[in-house]
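Students often ask why we bother encoding 3D structure as a string. The short answer is that it lets us treat folding as translation between two languages. Here is a chain of 366 residues written in the first language.
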Amino acid sequence: MSTTDTDTCTLDATMNTIQSNKYNIYFDNSLAELAAFIEQGNYSRFFVLTDENTAKYCLPLLRERLGDPENFDIIEINAGEESKDIDFCIGVWKMLIDFGADRQSLLINLGGGVISDLGGFAASTFKRGIDFVHVPTTLLSQVDASVGGKTGIDIDSIKNIIGTFTQPKAVFIEYEFLKTLPARQILSGTAEMLKHGLICDADYWNLLKQSDLSSTTVEMVYKSVVIKNKVVMEDPHEKNIRKSLNFGHTIGHAVETWSLINDKDSLSHGEAIAIGMICEAYLSYKKTGLSSDELAEITQTLTNLYPRYELKMEHSDTLLEYMLKDKKNQNGKINCTLLSTIGQFAIDNICTNDELLEGLNYYANL
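And here it is in the second language, the structure alphabet:
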């Protein structure tokens, strides 16, 4: 078990361009920065990977800011987690071949977490790697998926089981895109922001808890990006402190997978992670010193924000099977990141099936 050094998550005071692992994360006038980046990059061609939603709501702004250039093509996939698999990845590769992409080409990933994960993986493997950048259009992708160099696809509903650690050449965060999102998608991204506070910064957690989270501010987005970037800068390949970002995700990913397969209106990623954080906060209370008052605070905050999900314990064996296949496990044992207190994490906690079932049961009986 290891806990955080609180200095790791100290926040910057102003919204400057953030330096990450050999690339920049742009906030101020970011699409103008993207236009300059393309011009300076001397790329033979560039391509925009998008889905039908971002093609409708976000691509027009991108075209406008880039001056609607002629030397690029659009690759559009279906929206949703179901598109983040090998078949859609093959489709992206084939489109790049058909459009004549070479090693001097650039792929712009315009969309949410599915687009950045899939696009990053496709680019990092096409012709042994071409340049790519992220233009995240959802709150979730702005504060989480676009930062850190993880790429990945799902296989047999196991999330992100195939992927690479490959850094983008840049990330361009345009707050204007968030205005196109429904409230449910804003709250989905907010779950990751709340996680950042829980694992790294109690003051940030308290700020979010007291705010109207149906609409976030650009300052909040910036703070979350600073937190995540500092973690991944210190541990780019998830050997130590980066594991802190997995809080809520062992159980949360299992619940999300169950919902994607079985529910007509499946949970969003953030809704599933909120459930996972409640369950894993309970495990933190049992195993790593989280107080009963803090458990109650986390539970109340998250249940007030996110709709109640009917988690049936009769499905717990299947949920445990999903957890057992999680990429974070060690030696066939389920490995969780927990909390020692609000604002401080504890990594590398092996949890037994009985303990995980107890965590699931805690949520089921709320």
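Translate back mentally: The two ends are 29 Å apart (CA to CA). Keep this in mind for the problem set.
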